[in-house]
Amino acid sequence: MGPGALADVLTTLQLPTNPNLLIGLEVSDDAAVYQLNSETALIQTVDFFPPIVDDPYTYGAIAAANALSDVYAMGGRPLLALAVAGFPGNLPQSIIRAILQGGADKVAEAGAVLAGGHTVVDQEPKYGLCVTGVVDPRRVTPKANAQPGDQLLLTKPLGTGIITTAIKREVGQADHLAAAVVSMLRLNQTAAEIAQTVEIHGATDVTGYGLLGHAAEIARNSGVGLQINAAALPLLPGALEYARTGIAPGGLYNNQEYLERDGYVTYSASVDAAQKRLLFDPQTSGGLLLVLPPAAADRFMRAYAAVGDSCWLIGRVVAGRGIAVSHTG
Predict the structure, then answer these.
(1) What is the Cα–Cα distance from 282 to 108, expressed in whole angstroms?
(2) For the chain, what is the largest distance between any 2 Cα atoms, rounded to a whole number of angstroms?
């Protein structure tokens, strides 16, 4: 569902609560968090979607990485996963096995256990995980708590939605898809572990609502504004070129329409239509968007570089409301 439609549905629900439920549906966050004791809280999340690539094993692994990412976004460590799947009745068993194996192998890579699941018959294949993790309740990283002066770091480049759409329309290049697949397969585990060693105010993973969709949730929950430097955004190979030709997944426009209403997102004149598309591009297994004080952001970037990974400073938190996008940050 698009962000606007989902928000409308959730506002009408009446659900019981519990004092141990630290994060639930009252705020828009990546996962639920339930405190067990003073040192341990459970993280619970579920995510699944139709195939994004043709290879079944790779599809299963990407879907698993995407689901695991919610636990990392909350600052936690995944422990246990259950598969959630729907398959057509005539889908060959070899394809089903490959999807399930891809997911199981990615869960094992995360140091967790795939312990079962549930399947239904569906006209279109769907696969994902319900994941349980743990976190110190004092170290939860919600989509909140951003403070003016904080910096915004992004740990993966953007463009998976536009690139996979280009492939589906048979205008995309194989090497561009290959780079996107490498990015989608990469767990956010290392980024989450390093983030737990520095002062961090908030975090989210960038997925279906696009960079600005998830950034806006942090801003609204924190009562602050954001400044985004469009020139600093990391992009996957081919993403900008496809965006310039007008290629975009359907969800992109839902994201854009929802956030641009009432002038919540504004742009400088130098931000063109292609760059705007990339800001709203729905990501699959995207990176973490981290909110850190400047000194902590510097320590994170140095530690992340030391293990051979890249991250990008893409903006900062300011007093006020809304998101301003320019080429100066």
Answers:
(1) 26
(2) 56
Q: What is the identity of the amino acid at 203?
A: A
Query: What does the DSSP assignment read for 224-290?
Result: -EEEEEGGG--B-TTHHHHHHTT---HHHHHHHHHHHGGG-EEE-TT--HHHHHHHHPPPSS--EEE
* Residues 132, 50 within the same domain: yes
- Chain centroid to CA 41: 21
Q: What is the CATH number of the domain that holds 321?
A: 3.90.650.10
298 within a domain of the structure (yes/no)? yes
Query: Sign of dihedral through CA atoms 211, 264, 238, 269?
Result: negative
Do both 113 and 18 map to the same domain?
yes
Domain end point (choices 88, 107, 139): 139
End-to-end CA distance of the chain: 31
With bands split at pLDDT 50, 70 and 90, how would you rate the model's confidence at 49? very high
- Residue 226 CA to residue 326 CA, distance in Å, equals 11
User: Any idea of the CA torsion for 73, 74, 76, 78, to the nearest 10 degrees?
Assistant: -60
Phi-psi category of 75—alpha, beta or left, where left has phi over 0 and alpha has psi -120 to 50? left
Rounded Cα–Cα distance for residues 266 and 106 (Å): 39
- What pLDDT, in 10s, does the model give residues 257-315? 999 988 899 999 999 999 999 999 999 999 999 999 999 999 999 999 999 999 999 99
For 89, the domain range is 3-139
Residue 144 lies in a domain: no
Q: Are 158 and 275 in contact (CB under 8 A)?
A: no
The two three-digit tokens of residue 72, written as one number:
């990392």
